[in-house]
Amino acid sequence: MEDTNREAVATAVQRVAGMLQRSDQLDKVEQYRRREARKKASVEARLKAAIQSQLDGVRTGLSQLHNALRDVKDIQNSLADVSKDWRQSINTIENLKDVKDAVVQHSQLASAVENLKNIFSVPEIVADTQVLIEQAELLEAHRKLMDLECSRDDLMYEQYRMDSKNTHDMNLIRNYFGAVQGLSDDLAKQLWMVLQRAMGTVRRDPTMLVSVVRIIEREEKIDRRMLDRKKQTGFIPPSRPKRWKEKMFEVLEGTVTTRIEGSQSVTREADKMWMVRLLEITRKYVLDDLIVVKNLMVQCFPPHYNTFDRFFKLYHNAASMRVQELAAEDLEANEIVSLLTWVLNTYKSVEMMGHQELVTEYDIHLMDPLLPQKVVDELLSKYVQTFTSNITGWLRKALETDKKDWVKETEPEADQDGYYQTTLPAIVFQMFEQNLQVAAQIDETFKEEVLKLCLKQMNSFLIRYREEAIAYKEDHLRDRQLPQCYVQYMIAIINNCHTFKESINSLKKKYLKSTEPTQNDAAIERTLNDVAKDGCQFLLDEVFLDLEHHLSELLTRKWLTGTHAVDTICVTVEDYFNDFAKIKKPFNTEMTSEAHRRVVVEYIKAVMQKRITFKNADERREGADRMIKEAEQFKFLFRKLTAGEETDRLCDAIAAIAEVFKLTDPTLLYLEVSTLVSKYPDIREEHIVALLAVRGDASREMKQMIIETLNQNKPSYAGNTQPIFKDINVPTVTMSSSMAATANKLLK
């Protein structure tokens, strides 16, 4: 207390010191004193109120404790009285045991009396109930069955209460009501039969289905009541719980499964389209049944059954089991496609589960997939393997069929523009198109995969196509009379390459989203170009085989005296190119250019072979004039074949050689040869030697001087012009030692 007083005094001193720090504050001492007095009075008042409140609470508590003490004493006195009375009545309670037994017996007798009518009429009620079941009066039959079961269960319960170990009396009651269990089983069979035919029943007589559901609901309530009583007493009647609700859902599930599995009406042996028919029947059954469930059956079941959701899942699970069974079979390629198309596309489309009448009731996106992704991948892989094997066989068969046409005695068909063609490209790409359309039904990714597979097989096929075209040419060369339409079918083979290119580009444009080239594009393009190039070469070989005799007459003594070799060559080439006009561009243009080059090359080869050596200036002039004339003939011919395009350069080589022969002054020979070399820089020394040898008047020294001078001043070959002399070889001849030394020097 003293510490508290000292602390209070110190605090007060500190407060006063704080208020009187300046001299002008002394004038307010009275004001400060009154303010502090008011605060003190206020604090004292609050303390008095608090103390008074505490005192009132203590007074009230003491009063209640006194009252509780009195109550405890009263209770103790009452308990003492009760204990005294209980001790006095023990003997009386023991004397009432007989009364208790009499009460239990009275209860059993009362139950027996209550069920007496049913007990005596059990056989009659059983018979009536059996008749009602047979007449499908299910509600009435169930009412009577419940009465019988109630009588039996009450009697057995009372017996259980009286003596639970008395099995003899329990069996006596059970045997007396033995027929009741049979009635229950018969009624259950009727219920399951109605549920198995629920789809038809709900259309024809929905009240029957409602009655079945009501009966099952009644049994469910009885089951719950019996189970509750078992928890309290330990007694449960025979055949309880029946669990008919669970059985009902099992029956409905079995009905749905049977409905789906029973949709297969044909087999593969009877109908190749069995899979399509099966899936279409399944689609129709599922859709029709679910619409019936939504519009009719839902009204026959209590709302808490979630009838539509339950049936939706049942049909989904049944369909899933069925398609998995189908997927496990040894399916053909078309069957795999039909199954996957149905599973991946049709199933969730508006034609089935996505139908407008169903989507409002169930979110199809919540459904599990019909087939696991692993199974889908396995089916796709199997389809690719089967398709690869099939398409290889189809392509081989198509090529064999086309080869049979090559030996026909009739010309191949022509398209609307008059170009020869065979049916091979149409057959191949119709086959590709059909398979791509089928693959597109599955999904876009698989469609592109099939297209790439087609292109890969196409490359292998074109390699075989080229080999067969080469074999076709070789067979023809063994007997040029056969086949009769060799030229026309070789033209068709060339044109087919153009058609193949167009068809491939069309397929890629139609079925590939990406414009990026595939890994097979370059190989296919190269192989098609090789086939077309080979075909053009084979046809030119055919032409030059016919020209071989006439070409051998060029630059000979016979030619100098006058022959019609070039006339015949031009007529033959023009005649062939009337057929070659049925070759599509750009192959016909390239072929015309190659024919032009080969004619000129063969002509120059005739010069280089030194079949003739001019004896004098007159012969040189006559030969040169003939060469210039024939060069003009070639120009005219190929201008005509190329529709006026520039063709002079190649033929001008003949005229340039003719000018070397025509020159009368040998001293100017070097200038003329230099002009020839400047125009055709691919000319070689052996060509010049051969020309000078044919001219016949060049001395050994002049030849050596011309060659050495040209070797020193020879222009470089840029390679940007078409070479003429590059592929022309000069036959080897015996040379003098000086000429050999000069040639060796030039070669070095």
From TrEMBL:
Keywords: Acetylation, Cell projection, Cytoplasm, Exocytosis, Golgi apparatus, Protein transport, Transport. GO terms for biological process: exocyst localization; exocytosis; protein transport. It comes from the Eukaryota. The keyword Repeat does not apply. GO terms for cellular component: exocyst; Golgi apparatus; growth cone; membrane; midbody; perinuclear region of cytoplasm. It is found in: Cell projection, Growth cone; Cytoplasm, Perinuclear region; Golgi apparatus; Midbody. Belongs to the SEC6 family. Component of the exocyst complex involved in the docking of exocytic vesicles with fusion sites on the plasma membrane. This is Exocyst complex component 3. The gene is LOC120020330.
